[in-house]
Amino acid sequence: MTVELEWMNVDNLPLPSDVIEILKNRGIIKLNPPQTEAVKKGLLEGKRLLLTSPTGSGKTLIAELGIISFLFKHGGKALYVTPLRALTNEKYLTFKDWEKLGFKVAMTSGDYDTDDAWLKNYDIIVTTYEKLDSLWRHRPSWLNEAQYFVLDELHYINDPERGPVVESVAIRAKRRNLLALSATISNYTVIAKWLNAEPVATNWRPVPLIEGVMYPDKKGYTILFKDNTLKKVYGDDPVIAYTLDSLSRNGQVLVFRNSRKTAELTARKIASYMNFIPLDEKALSDIVNEIDQIEEGGSEEKESLKELISKGVAYHHAGLSKQLRDIIEEGFRQRKIKVIVATPTLAAGVNLPARTVIVGDIYRFNRRIAGFQEEISVMEYKQMSGRAGRPGFDEMGEAIIVVRDKKNIDKIFKKYILSSTEPLESKLGNERAFYTFLLGILSAEGNLSEKELANFAYESLLPKSLVDIYFDRAIQWLSEHSFIREEEGKLILTDFGKRVADLYINPFTADIIRKGLENHRSSCDIAYLHLLAFTPDGPLVSVSKNEEEELMGLIDDLDCDLLIEEPYEEDEYSLYLNALKIALIMKDWIEEVDEDTILGKYNIGSGDLRNFVETMDWLTYSAYQLSRELKLEEHADKLRILNARVKDGIREELLELVQISGIGRKRARLLYNNGIRGLGDIVMNVDKVKSLLGPKLGEKIAQEAARLLNRFY
DNA sequence: ACAGAATTTCTCTAGACAGCATGTC
DNA sequence: CTAGAGAAATTCTGT
Questions:
Q1: Cβ(A184)–Cβ(A53) under 8 Å?
Q2: Apex CA A708: angle with CA A703 and CA A710, to 5°?
Q3: I want to staple A337 with a disulfide (CB 3.0 to 4.6 A). Which of A63, A179, A331, A602 is the partner?
Q4: What is this enzyme's EC (predicted)?
């Protein structure tokens, strides 16, 4: 790989002076080596590039320059696509800068927006891969104006579940103009060729990185660094020993662990040593107070974090509420929190550098194969170690891999530190991904002949021989299950197929829903929830042995028969129980069971509950739409209400009250139990509402209730 | 024979995208 | 196949 060290002066860029002004306002006088290289390869002339470089090496600015120069030259729209909503938000805020030049910036993702007309007035649109894929299926007219695509974090192609979406977006984007950005990958020339783009590959990092492997050695631990130097640290636990070492040198530490439980445990252990570390106690108690203020999050997780944070330590995983995670990240960024122990949540995603990164576990439990521990990928390690070194604070970043078994030292050192990352490969080679891919293409492109459709598939990264295998099977399956039909030599989506594509659910999900609904005239909440949770799009939750037994005993006592027959096969059966657990969680949720109670009863975090609600909201809505499409009116009526209840976690009687923004399940219940049962009651009892919810909120709510009422008359 | 200690066996395990409604973007 | 922590079950030990 080439290593260039040229820094181009911003003044020398062939760009309008106001663009250069904006860069200088940000404090950018010179472009760093990767940025310089990209410019030299024709970035500003709209040349198609694939840029691979480490995290934090300034790829965003490259994208900005590419977008701005393209828009100046050709007009139209530019789309910036990321794999994460948090990233979408982050880039949106960065790109806002360009509104000074008259470019309008918008973002859109599943939790935020649809394809509505307002996007047509914007020049730069930041979105996720899934959202763009979905937009394409809906074919809004403004999308034709989008001619420049920035594909961020393209290495997500390797993700077994989400990679196929990235790939299919890339296939369509490469028919226009694109700029692809990726972490360092080994086969970048192959990928560049696939994208019909010029590769720009660098290893340059803003803060140099020193990597090492830490292993048990007499009376302590030894670290072997990449430059062959050795360092010795003492203590019982390697992770804690090195964390304290880095803290004593005034560094911040990011520790990665492979399970939530060990992340929490490690954080607690570290906290018990923090008396020796100077802390800004005032600032930390401010954070603790902030946690008391937030609404989201179970009380247990809040309490345990408050205790740790007061000692400058936190843990971080997806079981925590979003608000809690945001507070922790910000506290770390402000350098008040000194140590975060995290699961892989923090490996990808928003920028959160630390001087020291400790990779506590190289093995991870594999859900698919029981009892199997697999080594994490090199890519994953690079994502984690890439967080090491904070520009402006650290001269050097350090990434330490903990090896517990001495005989693995060489192997681990070689694999993670000396070798390059895995090549990017297509993950379209399975039925679920491939069928979904074809359905999406047909939905986005309209009717195509079999040959035209196949040509899209041949443009994927999947080897032709595999395309041929899956293609015929896909066409047959999609026809037999009436997603598509053939007319005058063209493949056409049926109404049902189009609906499924628009709802963005997997065709297998749709098929399961249809069969479940068509076999019964009407059913009960639990059965609907179970059916939906059982589909491939349904959420996964861990079910312990004890819970399994309980669930099995419960099946016969349910209000009504489930819509799925009990499977015989073991794997299927555990999915069946998984779905039942989800159904019970959601049932409690819509019966207004207190959140803390739900979290405790099912042993989940508030972040998990939020996830389940989000997914089941989407699926109940989709099932409602499908039942209408299939003219199953009784199901449709029930699913419509179920969907509304899942969205807010309420009984049916509160549906009217939760229309008001700022009123959720708790406030609605409070009002209802005090005789305020609808919008009219609010308007007529404003004083009572104010006394229940406080004057300020009460007033706001009364106004909105009045506004909503007016809309009806 | 039995309480309590030592040892073996069992159990558990990461993350996060998508629809739609609308007056924000 | 390539794990490690904690709880539960089982076996061992000393009196």
A1: yes
A2: 95
A3: A331
A4: 5.6.2.4
Q: What phi, psi does A214 have (nearest 5°)?
A: -110, 130
**What is the distance in angstroms measured between the alpha-carbon CA of A270 and the sugar C1' of B6?**
29
- Arithmetic mean of pLDDT, A634-653: 96
Task: Using the predicted structure, report yes or no on whether residue A712 has a pLDDT greater than 70.
Answer: no
- Map tokens 């050795």 to a residue: A230
Give the CB-side neighbour count of residue A534, counting CA atoms within 13 A: 25
Residues near A275 by Cβ (< 8 Å), separated by ≥ 6?
none
Beta bridge partners of A146: A77
Give A242-299 as a DSSP string: HHHHHHHTT--EEEE-SSHHHHHHHHHHHHTTGGGS---HHHHHHHHHHHHH-SSS-H
A640's tokens: 């419509």
Q: What region, left, alpha or beta, does residue A438 occupy, with left being phi > 0 and alpha being psi -120 to 50 degrees?
A: alpha
Would you mind telling me the total number of residues written for chain A in this entry?
A: 713
Kindly determine whether the C-beta of residue A265 is less than 7 Å away from any atom of nucleic acid strand C: yes
Question: For residue A331, how far is the Cα from the chain centroid?
Answer: 22
A329 strand C contact, CB < 7 Å: no
Phi, psi (5° rounding) for residue A378?
-60, -40
Rounded to whole angstroms, the Cα distance separating A689 from A691 reads: 5
Helix and strand numbers, DSSP H then E, in chain A:
29, 21
**CB < 7 A to strand C: residues 463-522, chain A:** none
A422 CB-to-strand C distance under 7 Å: no
What's the pLDDT band for A276 if we cut at 50, 70, 90?
A: confident
Instruction: Using only the alpha carbons of chain A, give its radius of gyration.
Output: 27
Nucleotide nearest to A711 (CA to C1'): B23
Do the beta carbons of residue A163 and residue A157 sit within 8 Å?
yes
CA A163 to chain centre: 13
When comparing pLDDT for A112 and A438, which is higher?
Answer: A438
Whose tokens are 């709510």? That residue is A701
Asked if strand C contacts A361 at the CB level, meaning under 7 A, the answer is: yes
List pLDDT tens digits, range A490-521.
Answer: 999 999 999 999 999 999 999 999 999 999 99
Contact yes or no for A131/A162 (Cβ under 8 A)? no
> What is the mean pLDDT of the segment spanning A682-692?
94
First to last CA, chain A: 68
Q: What is the mean pLDDT of residues A403-423?
A: 93
A35 is in an annotated binding site: yes
Residue A3 has pLDDT above 80, yes or no: no
Q: Which of A628, A429, A502, A455 is nearest to A136 (CA)?
A: A502
Nearest nt to A265, CA vs C1'?
C5
A603 touches strand C (CB under 7 A): no
All structural domains of chain A: 8-201 (3.40.50.300), 209-418 (3.40.50.300), 431-503 (1.10.10.10), 507-649 (1.10.3380.30), 657-712 (1.10.150.20)
Q: How far is the CA of A154 from the C1' of B16 (A)?
A: 17
Which pLDDT belongs to residue A411? 94
Dist CA A354 CA A329 (whole Å): 11
Q: Kindly indicate the confidence band of residue A713, based on its pLDDT and cuts at 50, 70 and 90.
A: low
The reply to whether the CB atom of residue A140 sits less than 7 A from any atom in nucleic acid chain B is no
Residue A591 CA: distances (Å) to CA of A25, A163, A174, A439, A651: 54, 37, 49, 37, 6
Chain B bases near protein Cβ (<7 Å): 11-25
Which nucleotide's C1' is closest to A548 (Cα)? B11
Instruction: Give residues 243-302 of chain A lying near strand B (Cβ < 7 A).
Output: 258-261
